[in-house]
Amino acid sequence: MPIPGAEHPRRAQLARNLAAVHARIAAACAAADRDPAQVCLIAVTKFFPATDLAHLAHLAPAAPAAHAPAAHAARRGVAHVGESRDRDAATKLAELAVQDPAARAALRVHFVGQVQTNKVASIARYADVIHSVDRPRLVAALAGAAQRLQRPIDVLLQVDLEEGAAAGRGGAAPADLGALADAVAGAAFLRLAGVMAVAPLGSEPDRAFGRLQGIHSRLLADHPDARWMSAGMSTDLESAIAHGATHLRVGTAILGSRPVAR
Ligand SMILES: *Cc1c(COP(=O)(O)O)cnc(C)c1O
After folding, report:
1. For a designed S-S bond to 46, which of 84, 105, 158, 201 qualifies (C-beta 3.0 to 4.6 A apart)?
2. Would residue 1 count as lying in a domain?
3. Could you tell me the pTM of the whole model?
């Protein structure tokens, strides 16, 4: 990967897209009477090249920064990226670490895709947060990998919000969440951080995220530190913010349409 320059047109495009997403977040937070500083934006970079991660990590603030206070300067660029395929993520992060170690070091990596048990050892090496833990076998595999690496990992429990015949394709059933939470909380190198969900296709995001918010508050009664709620993507982030999301996973609105999976 060639090290991308600051004047690269792709960087300007990413900066514009990012500014538009930040404006949407600010408006949704104002409407919900929430502090935008409490909402973490994760740029979902799956299938985009390592150069895009470098651009995002180095992005200057979209607004003229001449008089920006130090606190603002510290928040320039993107600090959180999301990946969903182990092979794609492992390859590009290794490439980035060689070509642009400062950019790699500046990024926290969120694994947001379905986790296959045989990929756990690889994912545990680079993921700081795993959003999609949904079954006891996966908790056991992850606990073992984190322990071997002596590497703490934040874990979110993915909740299946599908109903009826569509249920069961990803995420834990709400009824199974308590046992799963206890298993994560009992593992030495795993931290139970909260819940995650994807709004079912074709359903009202407000209804889905309202349900998730209720499920989250019941989990919080037993696990008061599990404060994160990962919800909201390019098309429904406003609804997620209205229902208390602390982490947004936004791909298309920042990076454009995804390249075909490699
Ligand atoms: C790809 C993906 C996203 C980002 O989706 P966009 O619609 O492109 O914003 C968010 N969450 C998960 C789990 C994903 O796989």
Report:
1. 84
2. no
3. 0.93
Range(s) of the domain holding residue 248: 9-254
- Looking at the chain, the whole-number percentage of residues with pLDDT higher than 70 is 92
- 235 CA from centroid of ligand 1 (Å): 10
C-beta of 232 in contact with ligand 1 (< 6 A): no
Total domain count, the chain: 1
Measured in angstroms, how far is the CA atom of residue 186 from the centroid of ligand 1?
29
Decide if 105 is inside a domain: yes
Residue in 212, 205, 250 with CA at minimum distance from that of residue 40: 250
What's the 141 CA to ligand 1 centre distance in angstroms? Answer: 25
**Is 252 close to ligand 1, i.e. is its CB under 6 Å away?**
yes
Contact predicate 123/154, CB 8 Å: no
* Cβ atoms of residues 107 and 128 within 8 Å: no
| 110-144 pLDDT per residue, tens | 999 999 999 999 999 999 999 999 999 999 999 99
Residue 21 resides in a domain: yes
Contacts 24+ apart (CB under 8 A), 98-101: 99/1, 99/3, 99/50, 99/54, 100/3, 100/50, 100/54, 100/57
The answer to whether 44 and 81 are in contact (CB under 8 A) is yes
In this structure, what DSSP letter does residue 202 have? T
Report pLDDT digits (tens) over 191-234. 999 999 999 988 899 999 999 999 999 999 999 999 999 999 99
Q: What is the CATH number of the domain that holds 224?
A: 3.20.20.10
Query: Is 211:239 a contact under the CB 8 Å cutoff?
Result: no
